[in-house]
Amino acid sequence: MKVQQLVAKAKQAGELIQGKDIVLLIGETGTGKSTTVQFLAGCKMSVTKVRINSEAYSDHITTTEPFKYPGLEHVISSPLCRSETRYLTPVTIPLKDVLGAYENGDITLCDAPGIGDTAGPEVDLANNVGVIEALKGCKSVKILVISSYTTLGGRGEGIQRLAHILINMIHGVEERLESIVYAFTRYPPNENINALLLNIKLNKVDQDRYLSRDNVFVAVLKDMIQKTENDKAYKIDPIHGDRKPLIRELQRLCGIQYPQQVIRFSMSGETREAIINQIQRDKLNVICSLKHKDSDLVLYYLNNVKIFNELIEHNAVQEAYEVSKKSVNESFVKHCADETDKIKRLVASNVELKQKDLEEDAIPKLLAHIFTVWTIINNDEYNELRGLESSNDYLLMPHVGQVIAIFRILGIGYQEDKKLPIINITYKKKISDDLVNNLVEIGTGEGKSVVIAITACIFALIGADVVCSCYSEVLSERDMNDFVPVFRALGIEERIKYGTFNKLCEQLLNEQCNLREKVRDMILDNKSVLDIAQKEKIVRHKVLLIDEVDVFLSEKFYGGMYTPSLILKDPYIKELLDSLWKNRDIRSLNGVKALPAYEACASRYSNWISLFDEAIKDMLATLRSFKPSTYMRKNDRIVYVEGESVTDNVILGYDTIWAYYHENKNGNISSSSLEDNVGIIVNCGTFSYAEMPYEFSYIAGVSGTLKTLAESEK
User: Fold this and answer.
1) 251-273, pLDDT tens digit by residue?
2) Domain range for residue 410?
3) Is 475 in the same domain as 586?
4) Pick from 10, 40, 85, 23: nearest CA to 259
5) Quick one: which H or E segment has residue 383?
6) Are 338 and 230 members of one domain?
7) 3-state secondary structure of 519
8) Is residue 681 a contact partner of residue 657, using CB atoms and an 8 Å limit?
9) How far are the Cα atoms of 219, 313, 343 from residue 698, in angstroms, in the given order?
């Protein structure tokens, strides 16, 4: 659409006048705005004869030397009284070049498209919208109104049109007349402009009961009369005239502040009617394209209606847009439901994680349907109708590389060459009838999150529980939030879990029971034996999908241990910790045993006093070397940086416990937070990250640096 192209140009012009005080030229098409800009910029000009048809010539004023200032090359005047300006064109002129070396600063003139352009409704719309878009970022606007003798009319109709242009374009124009100056082009040298304006007021306006009651129009006309009294009218003579008086007047003017709130949309009734008719046609085209299931045409026509709706405040336009959106939404919802039903029918019989179940045509078809649901849910209009903000003007579609990566994760296409003995004929044979663990390399920014999420959908749909694991909590939460709508639409949200490697350990350890609660209850009840948890039978396969598998296989994770721990808290323990903090000069366990708080704990936890003794040794050692340096404070908690995120559920031994006491002493941590977060640290066991994969029926991973993995890691 030409509208979009011209508005884009106007936005580029807006960047050039960002934060500037500008002078905006306003007038009808053919009044000489472009010539006025050239004149004020100091261009040398002359009159030339220009052929306007096969039999006639016309005088046309043109520049006779190269342009001095940037932007002037885009200021074009036409001999045919038509607008050559299609978007706002700024030209900045140093004042010292006009008024003398003692002047500082500059003046920015903005040549605007002609109002009521004869090139058609679309151009007229683009002209108006373009001006509004370009002015959004400027600091202030002064208005230079151009009136031409050639558009005056027999009874001053041109002045009336010009006044109404100002009224329609400037909100509350009668209160902003101090920001407006008038200039007149092509008027005869001896023409008394003030007398002409006064004559229009007395013999035209005052005699017309409708015009005379238009208070705003009368105020603008009176302002024009007042500012042209005593021969003060600024007549533009591009060849022999002096630009300095008008430049000084523009310099003196007080600009309109916050122009984006004042300058408003204005277009002719003819343009408005033509555009409303076009929108109605686009609305019908949307509905027709939906019936023919032509998604490209649907989006094309809907985008047209959307653009007009954003540009024009009119009930008919808004109604057409709402009807179009509703039609598209209903179609999307039905299509999404149809695709979901197809998916359910496709996976109804798949219950085993076997290669043969994933090799057939069902999986590519299933993948196609899942991606269709993903595309629909991420569509701009669909999200907007669900109350979600989105700036995407395009459809999300999978890249072929992502589709191939998913096929490889699912084991599709894995074959090896075999030779028949004696006759030496080569043939293809599948590597295994079972699903083989896979690693796939996907470069940074190539959509690893999409590959993992859609693969998780396939496994969940055929009955497996899926865990998508990543090293970063921030990335994990982001990916989960991006794809939850798809999981929900497919009815598999409960079967797919996202989390960090540590969170994965927690899920596995607590699958049959809450390990920490069991240990805590055992100690608080002073029992010496842990109660046996009731073991539940796992009926579904479990699948592990690892994002950035090279990080998982690093020494920190795969080569390390996970140690779940808890903080044992009760009044006896709090009293013991308080005593140790107050008596920091105590250096040995024997010294602590003499404290009343220790005796109370020994009596309360007789079966676990050896655990307390070892904990006290750690407390004393840490207290001697404690330095408040590695942590941060956030929301009345001690927090640590872990990977790319800040977490408050990490405990670095008794350094964290004494950090709470230290910050409480300094008034940075409340007493309630201190009480909630300190106690004796109890390790519940040590678990190897390397053992985690054995809990899963199938494992796959993606990485951007697969080539760096050692053979043993692969």
Assistant:
1) 999 999 988 888 876 666 677 77
2) 355-511+543-559+707-714
3) no
4) 23
5) helix 380-385
6) no
7) helix
8) yes
9) 81, 57, 22
Q: What is the pLDDT of residues 650-704, one digit of tens each?
A: 788 888 898 999 999 999 999 999 999 899 988 877 777 677 777 788 888 888 7
- Count CB neighbours of 375 within 10 A: 20
Domain termination site, one of 319, 348, 377: 348
Question: Which stretches of 252-350 are assigned E, i.e. beta strand?
Answer: 256-257
Separation between Cα atoms, residue 689 and residue 409, nearest integer Å: 22
Joined tokens for residue 471: 């090293």
Residues 232, 278, single domain; the answer is no
Same domain, 141 and 42: yes
- Please choose, from the candidates 2, 193, 16, 186, the residue with its C-alpha nearest in 3D space to the C-alpha of residue 111: 16
Task: Assess if residue 690 is contained within a domain.
Answer: no
Residue 28's domain is classified under what CATH number?
A: 3.40.50.300
One-letter identity of residue 342: K
Cα distance between residue 506 and residue 143, in whole Å: 68
- Give yes or no: residues 333 and 184 share one domain: no
Q: What is the pLDDT of residue 690?
A: 72
Please give the torsion angle defined by the CA atoms of residues 407, 413, 414 and 418, in that order, rounded to the nearest 10 degrees. 180
Token pair 């590389």 is at which residue?
401
Type and span of the H or E element at 3:
helix 2-16
DSSP secondary structure letters along 175-237: G-GGGEEEEEES--TT--HHHHHHHHIIIIITT-HHHHT-HHHHHHHHHHHHTTGGGT-EEE-
Closest to 131 in 3D by CA, of 309, 276, 262, 317? 262
DSSP characters for 550-619? HHHTSTTTTTSEE--EEEE--HHHHHHHHHHHHTTT--SHHHHHTSHHHHHHHHHTGGGHHHHHHHHHHH
- Using the 3D structure, point to which of 313, 348, 383 is the last residue of a domain: 348
Please name the amino acid found at residue 375.
T
Q: How far apart are CA 40 and CA 98, in angstroms?
A: 9
Q: Domain for residue 536, yes or no?
A: no
User: Which CATH number do you get for residue 451?
Assistant: 3.40.50
Please check whether residue 616 is in contact with residue 624, taking contact to mean a CB–CB distance below 8 angstroms. Answer: no
Among the listed residues 315, 316, 328, the one whose alpha carbon sits nearest the alpha carbon of residue 278: 316
Q: Which two tokens stand for residue 419?
A: 């030779």
